[in-house]
Amino acid sequence: MTKQEFATLVVAMQAMYGKDFIGTEQALDVWYALLHDLDYQILSKVLQQYMLTNKFKPTVAELREIYTELVSPTISDWSEGWEQVSKAIGHCGMYQEKAAMESFDEITREVVKRLGFQNICLSENIVADRARFAEIYQAIKKRKRTEVNVESALPNLWEMVQNRLAELAQKGQKAIEQEKDKT
Questions:
Q1: Global pTM?
Q2: What superkingdom heads the lineage (predicted)?
Q3: Which of 73, 117, 150, 154 has its CA 20 to 30 A from that of 31?
Q4: What is the average pLDDT across 127-131?
Q5: How does pLDDT run across 32-65, given as a tens digit for each residue?
Q6: Do the domain assignments include residue 50?
Q7: Mind spelling out the 3-state secondary structure of the chain?
């Protein structure tokens, strides 16, 4: 997204939430650094959706979360993953672990690796296994959502902070030089 496109979105946010929505030029730069990697058209739809469903000002995190939900592949619910495991146990049995693992989606495969496919097959407490599966599945799902959401913004924010620190150092150096010239 270009700065011009971002400015269009800022105008919309200010119209909805007030002129002081973002505030300072530095705040505007931070918002842009955290959102500029997103597609303008999609972010525009996200903002419209947010404005229609929320009374309060959005945060960068809220906008990125909605954006991620729109663009990332659907991550199933833990119960769908558990259903895959149950079917694989019935179809493959404990001795065809490789075939079973290939039938799982990415998150289910990771959970089953942690729990052990044969351990699940031989378990005498399927209720406890299902509960552990759900807990691990939800943690992995949350981590993956965060990775998708944050991954592209972090390098840009780091670069922006480094540039801002360099600017401040230059201003400080100029101020010192001006003080020396006065004396």
A1: 0.53
A2: Bacteria
A3: 73
A4: 95
A5: 888 888 889 999 999 999 999 988 899 988 998 8
A6: yes
A7: CCHHHHHHHHHHHHHHHCCCCCCCHHHHHHHHHHHCCCCHHHHHHHHHHHHHHCCCCCCHHHHHHHHHHHHCCCCCCHHHHHHHHHHHHHHHCCCCHHHHHHCCCHHHHHHHHHHCHHHHHHCCCHHHHHHHHHHHHHHHHHHHHHHHHHHCCHHHHHHHHHHHHHHHHHHHHHHHHHHHHHC
